[in-house]
């Protein structure tokens, strides 16, 4: 299964489409491919059902089989993904590159996927650092865990029972988390100021050790402000 549990479809939703999307999400987590049996077991369906799902995805070039009959993602996904958040990524790249170089750490752009999750839209790795943090673009994480989601929650009005770090982030303008997305990794994020219609977006740094969290926080806030200006 993918990193985040996908809810079973309720009334008004297509169960077949749900399973097809589960196949794609499963293959994202297994870039070297899976057998048909492994796919069937991974999404909890009979092998015959998995065969029909995979065959349909193959017709649309969304998955493919190699000579060993292992199934992996297909090139058709590239064409589908290209327009997604393209303007945001295009504008964000130079800001992320500058932030990454200034902070000597990996810079990330995260968007709010839904009420409970955030998605890593882009990550830029530093060009000079000997070691750096690496994440997979597209991964989903709970909004209440990790600096990116905490920064988004801090941009909302205070709520009863919110985490102390959310309250602190609201006061200083950026959120800090340690070991919440990956062991030993510190995240520092700030929300990108945008219009009400735009999805919540944060920009930040991920690093092994933050000896000057306040200084890095200032860099992150400045980068978020620059991107917000570009998006207006």
Automatic annotation (TrEMBL):
InterPro entries: GAF-like_dom_sf (IPR029016), HTH_MetabolicPath_Reg (IPR050707), Tscrpt_reg_IclR_C (IPR014757), Tscrpt_reg_IclR_N (IPR005471), WH-like_DNA-bd_sf (IPR036388), WH_DNA-bd_sf (IPR036390). The keyword Cell inner membrane does not apply. It comes from the Bacteria. Keywords: DNA-binding, Transcription, Transcription regulation. SUPFAM superfamilies: GAF domain-like, Winged helix' DNA-binding domain. Residues 69-232 form the IclR-ED domain. PROSITE patterns: HTH_ICLR, ICLR_ED. The keyword Transcription regulation applies. Residues 14-75 form the HTH iclR-type domain. This is IclR family transcriptional regulator.
């Amino acid at each position: 299964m993918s990193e985040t549990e996908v809810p079973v479809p309720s009334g008004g939703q297509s169960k077949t489409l749900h399973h097809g999307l589960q196949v794609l999400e499963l293959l994202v987590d297994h870039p070297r491919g899976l057998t048909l049996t492994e796919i069937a077991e991974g999404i909890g369906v009979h092998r015959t059902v998995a065969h029909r799902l995979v065959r349909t995805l193959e017709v649309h070039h969304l998955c493919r089989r190699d000579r060993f009959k292992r199934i992996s993602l297909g090139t058709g996904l590239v064409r589908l993904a290209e327009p997604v958040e393209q303007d945001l990524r295009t504008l964000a790249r130079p800001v992320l590159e500058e932030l990454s170089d200034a902070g000597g750490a990996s810079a990330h752009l995260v968007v709010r996927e839904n009420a409970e999750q955030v998605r890593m839209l882009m990550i830029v790795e530093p060009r000079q650092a000997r070691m750096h943090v690496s994440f997979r673009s597209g991964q989903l994480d709970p909004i209440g865990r990790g600096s990116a989601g905490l920064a988004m929650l801090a941009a909302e009005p205070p709520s009863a029972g919110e985490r102390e770090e959310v309250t602190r982030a609201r006061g200083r303008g950026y959120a800090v988390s340690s070991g919440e997305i990956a062991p030993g990794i510190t995240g520092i994020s700030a929300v990108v100021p945008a219009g009400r219609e735009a999805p919540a977006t944060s920009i930040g740094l991920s690093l092994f050790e933050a000896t000057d969290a306040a200084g890095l926080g200032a860099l992150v806030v400045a980068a978020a402000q620059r991107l917000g200006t570009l998006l207006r």
